[in-house]
Amino acid sequence: MSTRLDLALHEIAEAVGGASAFGDATAPHTVATVRRLTGRVRRRRAVRGVGTAAVAASAAGAVVIVGPLAERPVPATSGAACGSVLDLPTTTGPAGFTIRADTTGARLDDGGSFGTRQGEQLAVQVEIDVDDATPMTDGAPAPEQVAPLPTAPELLITDDDVVVTESVLAPATVAGSDGGGPGTWSATDGPATTAGGATWHATAGNGHVSVGWSDLVDLVSCTTGEALTPGAYEVWASRIGDDGRTRTVGPFDLTLVAEQPAVTSSLPADFPSEVPLVGGRLAAVARAGGAWTVEVETPGDDRAEVARALLDRAATRQVDGFGGSTSEVTTTPDGGLVVGRWAVTVAASTTADGSPSVVYRLTPQD
Amino acid sequence: MTAWQDTLDELVRTRGRALAGYAYLLTGDVREAEDLVQDALVRTFARGRSARGVTSAEAYVRRTILTTYVDDFRRRRHWATIRHLAVVPEPSPSDGPNAGPEPVVTTRLAVQQALDLLPPRERACIVLRHFEDMTVAQVADTLSLSIGTVKRYLSDATRTLEEHLGPLAGRDDESAHHTDDVLVTPRRPR
Questions:
Q1: pLDDT (tens digit per residue) in A250-270
Q2: Do B20 and A41 touch (CB under 8 A)?
């Protein structure tokens, strides 16, 4: 007789939840629980002072391989308080980690920029270099090396040096990188994440391991809960290393643009209403052989991603299958999406006068 | 009260128990589960992620519960030290002279104890796949893992569970080993 794992899990969760004292709406202690949680939230929002030691000039920020997993202290927060002036120590020397904007994939060097964005989220990657794997001799396999994963970095956004957004990035997997050179370690050889932390295998050479964080950060004020207003901001990434010291990269410029007006009123009456277009100014529209080409002047380095997200939502449909209902979209060989009876592609472009735009192509599906 | 306080209050009162049950599937300990839920609530609301109401806040809290659990070194070390001590009782037959008076409870206990044998990431994958009903791609996206890694975790976890529970079945009596063969690109939740 088979065990229905899904049913068993739901029964377990319901049984434990029903018996738990936490969240019992009728119990008098729930009032105290909520009050205690509220106090912790308030304190965490308002008070972030921690003693951070000055960063040594030679500190590289690398995670040191300590052999078997050792007890690690719970890291304190970085010292940046929401709504207060940013006060992080300046990191001298290599910080041991880098930040990149997810859309470009390019690492941001000092003075770099996230550019201009109209989206409500910021895709970010932060990568921390783990100490170089111990090179081995004579081609023999290196022993497994175990190390704890480094603490998750914190992403901060400031407006005139005042912290307006802060979030701890969700942890990601251990990524490998090929250091190049003869006999170097390849990501395909590992590493594999184990219960004890990160493990990897190294061959002779200078291959190293990095740990990557990738997240979508909501561009929402941590004090008001509202979307950040259009304007210029600065982005920082900060983390506390194993030595208890705070390391920071940034600032990186970020410009948020205002929400753009809809273009639907400017479109021809027979334009497919089921295909959503990004807001802005209708620059051009043409129809040929049943297909449509539309250009919308709209700002933002992420304008193509914003346009794609609108199409993605319109293209999503619920499909019943094994395990329940799933959300699916149908793509076309050229990377477009099927929206209704149309295959739609969108790409970033510029208008004839050099203004940023996106160009849509709608092809009818037979 | 501010908006976030209203949301926190309503979330604890209306969804607190469900969150505790969810956290328990990951931790296997009631007290740890309740602590995990409270920590996740504080982290979520301290970062202004409650602006869009209870439903949105709960989604953030569930995600924080999951990531905190997976990222918690102390739990992983505790698992590593007690794994060899875990004893899973043989499930009672459903009828006959050796049948227990409460076969449902016995099965639940067996599943709980078998889950305790799983390392954190495997356990998280099992919970997301079979409790949250996520596709493999959604599990991968939630845990920031590759689809191949998730499939491997699910396969390893299912093998471990089946060693102690016998065959596992999904919905419609299909094997719990089934992984998604999606003919179209699944939507990536944001």
A1: 778 888 988 888 888 889 999
A2: no
B31 lies within 8 A of chain A by CB: no
Is A46 among the domain residues?
no
Q: Is residue A18 part of a domain?
A: yes
- Tell me whether residues B71 and A149 touch, CB distance under 8 A: yes
* 114-143 of B, contacting A, C-beta below 8 A: 119-121, 126-127, 130-131, 133, 135
The residues in B 140-179 lying below 8 A from A, measured between CB atoms, are 144-146, 149, 161, 165-174, 176, 178
Q: What kind and span of H or E run contains B37?
A: helix B30-46
Residue A119 within any structural domain of the chain: yes
Determine the Cα–Cα distance for residues B19 and B32; give it in Å rounded to an integer.
Answer: 12
Cβ–Cβ below 8 Å for B131 and A323 = no
CB hemisphere CA count around B26 (13 angstroms):
30
Residue A203 and residue A96 share a domain: yes
Domain co-membership, B59 together with B107: no
Q: How confident is the model at residue B177 (pLDDT cuts 50, 70, 90)?
A: low
Q: Provide ipTM, 2 decimals.
A: 0.77
User: Based on the structure, what is the number of domains in chain B?
Assistant: 2
The neighbouring-strand residues paired with A233 are A254
Query: Are B161 and B128 in a shared domain?
Result: yes
CA B11 to chain centroid, in Å, comes to: 20
Mean pLDDT of chain A: 69
| Chain B residues with beta carbon closer than 8 angstroms to that of A221 | 48
Which residue(s) pair with A331 in the sheet?
A337
Q: State whether the Cα torsion A9-A10-A13-A14 is positive or negative.
A: negative
